[in-house]
Amino acid sequence: MTTATETLVTLDTIRAAAERIAGIAVKTPLVRAPFPGVGGEVWLKAESLQPIGSFKLRGAANKILQLTADEVARGVITYSSGNHAQGVAYAARAVGAKAVIVMPSNAPAIKRAATLALGAEVVEVGVASSERLAKSDELVAKHGYVTVAPYDDEAIIAGQATCGLEIVEAIPDVDLVLSPVSGGGLLSGTAAAVRQLRPEAVVVGVEPELAGDAAESFRTGELVTWPAELTSRTMADGLRTQSLGVRNFAHIRAFVDRIVTVTEAEIRAAMRAIVATARLVPEPSGAVTTAALMFHAHELPPYRKAVAIVSGGNVAPEMLADVLTGA
Q1: Common-topology check for domains 4-54+153-325 and 57-147
Q2: Are 20 and 66 within 8 A, CB to CB?
Q3: 83-113 pLDDT, tens per residue?
Q4: Higher pLDDT, 130 or 247
Q5: From CA 310, how far away is CA 112, in angstroms rounded?
Q6: pTM reported for the whole predicted model
Q7: Which fold has domain 57-147?
Q8: 3-class secondary structure for the chain?
Q9: Which pLDDT tens digit goes with each residue over 169-189?
C-alpha cells in the first residue's frame, strides 16, 4: 500500500487549490444549529449550497482546472452515483471539455437528470462500484478520455480539503469537525486541512452502519471492501462506496481520530432536525454528521465548538416529503 508520507497533501497544496477553484466553487456559510439536547456550540457547513448542491464541485474543479489543453480536448470521464458526476459535468462545461459519466442503475433520478442537464453523457451500469470502474476503464481505452477519479486522487483530496480550510478560517478555535465518509475524499481532505492548521482539533468521520466499510477499515488498520448488496441498503446513496481509496485511507490514518456509524432511523431524524433548526435541505448523506451529534455523543470527545459538514442537498422531493412527514 502507498505510504502516508508519499500521499499526504500539504497546506500549500490546499491553499493553491482554494485559489484555483475560487471562480467555480463558493465559500459556503457556517450556519448556527442549536439542536435540542445537543451540547456545545454547533455549526453546519452548508456544502448543500454549492452550485451543484454538493461539496464534490471542489475536488472536480481542482482536478479539471489543472488539465492541459490536449487533455481538455480529449474529454473527461468519471464513475459516480450522482454528486461527483455533477461536479465533473459542471467543471468540464466551464473549460469546454466533453464529460462522460458512468452511473449505477440505482442512482437517484434527480441526480441523473441534473447531470444530463449540465451537458454530460451518461452511461448506465449495475449497482456495484466495481462495475462503474470497469466500464470507465473500458471507455478510456477506447476513446482516450481523462479520468477524474471520485476520491482516490491527490488533486481531488486537495480540492475537498478547501472545505476544512474554510472551517478553520471561520472558527479558528473549533474543537470538533465531523465529516461524512464514503470513498474518503471529503474526510481525508478536510482532516488534512483541519489538523495541519489546528492540531488540537478532533476530526471524526461518520457513515451509515449499513455501509460501514470505512469504520471497519479504520478499526482494523487494513482496507476492507464490502459487497454492493450490503452498501446499497442505506438510503444515503452518496455513501454507498464499497471501500476507501488508498490515498484517502493514508490521510485518514494520519489525521482522523475515529469513525462513527449511524442508523437509518437516526439519519432520518437528523434530516428533520436540520430542516427545522437550520432551514437547510440535506440529502441523507449530508445528515449523517448531525445524526452523530444527536445520537452518538458518547462516542465523541467533549467540545465547545463543533462543525458538522452537510455534504450535499440533492435529495429527491418524494424522499424529503416522506422523511419530513414520517416517523
Answers
A1: yes
A2: yes
A3: 999 999 999 999 999 999 999 888 888 889 9
A4: 247
A5: 21
A6: 0.94
A7: Rossmann fold (3.40.50)
A8: CCCHHHHCCCHHHHHHHHHHHCCCCCCCCEEECCCCCCCCEEEEEEHHHCCCCECHHHHHHHHHCCCCHHHHHHCEEEECCCHHHHHHHHHHHHHCCCEEEEEECCCCHHHHHHHHHCCCEEEEECCCHHHHHHHHHHHHHHHCCEECCCCCCHHHHHHHHHHHHHHHHHCCCCCEEEEECCCCHHHHHHHHHHHHHCCCCEEEEEEEHHHCHHHHHHHHCCCCCCCHHHHCCCCCHHHCCCCCCHHHHHHHHHHCCEEEEECHHHHHHHHHHHHHHHCCCCCHHHHHHHHHHHHCHHHCCCCCEEEEEECECCCCHHHHHHHHHCC
A9: 999 999 999 999 999 999 999
Per-residue pLDDT reduced to its tens digit, 185-230: 999 999 999 999 999 999 999 999 999 999 999 999 999 999 989 9
Which has the closest alpha carbon to 308: 270, 279, 268, 258? 270
From the CB of residue 93, how many other CB atoms can be counted at a distance below 10 Å? Answer: 15
Residue with cell 433548526: 277
Q: What is the pLDDT of residues 16-57, one digit of tens each?
A: 999 999 999 999 999 999 999 999 999 999 999 999 999 999
The C-alpha cell at 17 is: 487549490
Contacts of 325 (CB under 8 A, 6+ apart): none
The fold of the 4-54+153-325 domain, in CATH, is: Rossmann fold (3.40.50)
Grid cell, residue 88, equals 465533473
Number of neighbouring beta carbons within 10 Å of residue 29: 14
Q: Give the start-to-end residue ranges of the domains of the chain.
A: 4-54+153-325, 57-147
pLDDT recorded at residue 326: 83
Amino acid at 296: H
- On the question of pLDDT at 2 being above 70, the answer is no
